[in-house]
Amino acid sequence: ALRGRVLSDLIGQARAQGAFVLKIDPEVPYGEGPGAAVEAELREHGWRPAPDPAQFRNTLLLDLRQSDEALLARMKQKWRYNLRLAQRHGVQVREGGAADLEMLYHMYAETSQRDGFVIRSREYYLDSWRSFIERGQAQPLIAELDGEPVAGFMVYVFGKTAWYLYGMSTHLHREKMPNHLLHWEAIRWAKAHGCETYDFVGAPDKLNERDPMWGVYRFKEGFGGRFVETIGEWDYPLRPLQYWASRLVLPRLLSVMRVLGRRRVAAEVS
């Protein structure tokens, strides 16, 4: 009953704002039980699976309700070795703040160029990161070697869950495994702030080695995370004609925006 009330109120708010589609991404596991019941209910009330989801459908979750020793024991041996390697090489992880955001954005832009993904504008990230930090719902973590930043994370927290949402690094000292140590310190930070779950955010749609996300999945899975498949994003078309028109136009528009975005970021990091 509460779920029905929430969805009904959301639809009413979206109509009042003149939206042509309402999108949701519920944290509901896929499959028999609650997942199947929620999917059936959504379909019955006019929702449809989003054809072009903006976010990852699946993720990996780590249960933080255990000791550091138990968490380390869940990791693959190579991952424990790599985080200790980073410590032996003098990598230090510190908590960042608003003064670090410009540096983190440029590091993120460099990462996007190196790894071939498109990011939003500088203003978007600086405003978003600062807003969540000021509300106590995000924490930058920065890995440094001899005082020089070499990698960073943005960890979000809400309730008893922490999310690893943005990761960035330079081309320097990658062989010293700063990202392994960053994840470990992010996990410890989340535990210290009362979180019970660490969400690695992003996993393949199916566990298939040919999936482009397979390498990312293997890295995250090495920390002991559990693969979780969800029901994904759903659309509620408020104005069907506009919704279907957007389905034709949006992919082409996004392609143009991606090209322009790559050029903009390339100019910023050059």
Question: Would you mind describing this structure in some detail?
Answer:
This protein starts with a helix and ends with a helix. Strand 6 and strand 7 (161-169) form a beta hairpin. The chain has helices spanning 2-16, 34-44, 68-74, 77-88, 101-115, 122-134, 178-192, 214-221, 240-269; strands at 21-24, 48-49, 58-63, 91-95, 138-145, 148-158, 161-169, 197-199, 226-229, 234-237. It is α+β, with helices and mostly antiparallel strands and 270 residues long. The chain is globular. The mean pLDDT is 92. The strands form 2 sheets. A 7-stranded mixed sheet has the order 4-5-6-7-8-3-9, with helices on both faces.
Pick out its properties.
270 residues; alpha+beta; 7-stranded mixed sheet; 3-stranded antiparallel sheet; 47% helix
Give a brief rundown of this model:
The protein has 270 residues and is an alpha+beta fold.
Protein topology:
Elements lengths: L1 H15 L4 E4 L9 H11 L3 E2 L8 E6 L4 H7 L2 H12 L2 E5 L5 H15 L6 H13 L3 E8 L2 E11 L2 E9 L8 H15 L4 E3 L14 H8 L4 E4 L4 E4 L2 H30 L1
Parallel strand pairs: 7-8
Antiparallel strand pairs: 1-10, 2-10, 3-8, 3-9, 4-5, 5-6, 6-7
The backbone outline, from C-alpha atoms, is: globular
* Low-pLDDT residue spans: none
Helix content: 40-55%
Mean pLDDT: 92
Strand content: 15-25%
Distance between the termini: 54 Å
Query: Counting H and I runs of at least 4 residues, what is the number of helices?
Result: 9
